[in-house]
Specification:
Structural class of chain B: alpha+beta
CATH superfamily of the largest domain in chain A: GAF domain
Largest interface: A-B, 40 and 39 residues
Largest sheet of chain B: 5 strands, antiparallel
CATH architecture of the largest domain in chain A: 2-Layer Sandwich
Strand content of chain A: 5-15%
Oligomer: heterodimer
Structural class of chain A: alpha+beta
Keywords (chain A): Kinase, Transcription, Transcription regulation, Transferase
Distance between the termini of chain A: 36 Å
Organism (chain A): Streptomyces lasiicapitis
Protein name (chain A): Transcriptional regulator
Number of helices of chain A: 9
CATH topology of the largest domain in chain A: Beta-Lactamase
Number of strands of chain B: 7
Domain ANTAR (chain A): 166-227
CATH class of the largest domain in chain B: Alpha Beta
Number of helices of chain B: 10
Largest sheet of chain A: 5 strands, antiparallel
Number of domains of chain A: 2
Number of domains of chain B: 2
Domain ANTAR (chain B): 172-233
Distance between the termini of chain B: 38 Å
Number of strands of chain A: 5
CATH architecture of the largest domain in chain B: 2-Layer Sandwich
Chain lengths: 238, 252
């Protein structure tokens, strides 16, 4: 564990929360830091929509996004179990769990993952989602890393309520709805930018995020400006 | 897995359309919402940042009046819901704070007979074609389930409203929506949104039309929207402004 990086991460997350705040950007930062700091090979965040169905809100890479989707579609896997039980699920070696999650275990191996840890995102009595850490190599999870990962998951949960809102209601499922819509908006913008500059979706996301950071703007505001062609956005992806 | 909220709502709306003996239209979303929620009426307006907004339908005189008022005055919950892209819930219009917020609308709405108003934006990312308004003649709160239902009605209204334009943009015309058209409703896949963004460039159109064209193509080909979207994202399928979409079988 790199303590300096840990401190830097919490400062960075706190900064994001205080400034004009974009949930999708924040969750992606969270997954990236889980990879950089906690020794995870990949990380993903799932949030429940208003029907209680999980949606992939952020993933550190495409492999893990597909694997998270796979769990949702097949209705099996550690992340779903963690979400439903509201408690952590830790699997140091996925090979031992082929009976428990036959389809997921096989799929995870295909994607090159050997171990997984799923941590609940709880808000008082309500479980709103899960943070998932994947590792390529099987083996026990670092006992120091786990509470830190849980703390990151808790910060992410609190952040849901932090979202800037101009409306009267602060109902949680409305917040989630806004977050989901912001995700759609950013994906639309990624598609437009990727096609325009002949780059892939990940490069498009990075370009949008760098632009937002460099200009001190919310990711979803930049995404909307791009889609609506309301601004030149000079220097974006060039 | 239990029946999802969106499929339940879809059935309620389809029943209203069947009762009317027509294909599913936005008016069916309104009547179904009134039947399912503790409200007296519903209205739906097409809204736009660049073009004039106009009322599309309403279930009674009061809701018709509310739509007209908001669009004419340029203020009210529906206008705020559209501008900010969030639901605006007003359980009691007599609250003093609201009188400051919408000085003309609040009084006019009370006079028209509405005491509670709920405005739900129709939203799909940057696509925001309108607002669904619900009103009640008595003060009322929507509980969590009711609010979730109301948002599901608004989601369905978004697609019904956009699909109504398919015949105008070269997709399959005719009575009502193509078969299986609501199948992909509850499904969210990043690829659908990415493909929509890609089409804005390939077709040189706005995001709303790009989404309509993507859906129209999927219907016309009898393919799932997620399948068509994945092909667009993988660059196996290209759209162009003056020709039919072209398919290349190998990955680039």
């Amino acid at each position: 564990m790199n303590e300096r990086l840990l401190a830097k991460t919490f400062v960075e997350l706190a900064d994001t929360l205080v400034a004009d705040f974009d949930l999708i950007d924040f969750l992606r930062l969270l997954t990236d830091r889980c990879v950089g700091m906690l020794g995870a090979s990949a990380a993903g965040v799932l949030l429940a929509d208003r029907d209680g169905e999980l949606r992939v809100m952020a993933a550190s890479d495409e492999q893990v996004r597909l694997l998270e989707l796979f769990q949702i579609q097949n209705d099996e896997g550690p992340c779903l179990e963690c979400f439903r039980a509201g408690s952590p699920v830790t699997v140091p070696d996925l090979l031992t769990e082929t009976a428990r999650w036959p389809r997921f275990a096989a799929q995870a191996r295909l994607h090159g993952f050997g171990a997984v840890q799923a941590l609940p995102m709880r808000l008082r009595d309500e479980v709103v989602g899960a943070l998932n850490l994947f590792r390529t190599a099987p083996g026990p999870f670092d006992p120091v890393g786990t509470p830190i990962a849980q703390a990151l998951a808790d910060v992410a949960t609190i952040s849901l309520l932090q979202q800037r809102s101009t409306h009267r209601s602060t109902v949680l499922n409305e917040q989630l709805q806004t977050a989901l819509n912001s995700r759609v908006l950013i994906e639309q913008a990624k598609g437009k930018l990727a096609e325009r500059h002949n780059i892939d979706m990940e490069q498009a996301f990075t370009a949008l995020r760098s632009y937002a950071r460099a200009h001190n703007r919310r990711l979803s505001d930049v995404a909307r400006a791009l889609i609506d062609d309301t601004e030149p956005l000079a220097g974006l992806a060039s | 897995m239990p029946t999802s909220r969106s499929s339940r709502i879809r059935v309620l709306v389809a029943e209203q359309a069947a009762r009317r003996g027509a294909g599913v239209g936005v008016v069916d979303v309104c009547t179904a919402a009134v039947a399912a929620l503790p409200v007296g009426g519903a209205g739906l307006s097409a809204m736009s940042r660049t073009r004039a907004s106009y009322p599309l339908c309403s279930t009674d005189d009061i809701s018709e009046r509310l739509e007209e008022l908001q669009l004419t005055l340029g203020e009210g919950p529906c206008v705020d819901a559209f501008t900010h892209g969030v639901a605006v819930l007003v359980p009691d219009l007599r609250s003093g704070e609201l009188q400051d917020c919408w000085p003309v609308f609040a009084d006019a709405a009370l006079e028209a007979g509405a005491l509670a108003v709920f405005a739900l934006p129709l939203l799909n990312g940057a696509i925001s074609p309108g607002v669904l308004d619900l009103y009640a003649q008595v003060p009322v709160q929507l509980d969590t389930e009711e609010l979730a239902d109301a948002m599901a009605f608004a989601d369905l209204a978004t697609l019904v409203l956009l699909d109504a334009q398919i015949d105008e943009t070269g997709g399959p015309a005719g009575d009502g929506a193509p078969k299986g058209h609501m199948e992909d409703l509850g499904e969210y896949r990043a690829e659908i949104s990415q493909a929509t963004g890609i089409l804005t460039v390939q077709l040189g159109v706005g995001i709303e039309e790009a989404f309509i064209r993507l859906r129209a193509y999927a219907y016309a080909q009898g393919l799932r929207l997620t399948v068509v979207s994945a092909d667009v994202v993988a660059r196996r399928l290209r759209f162009s402004p003056d020709a039919e979409p072209t398919r290349t079988d190998e990955d680039p």
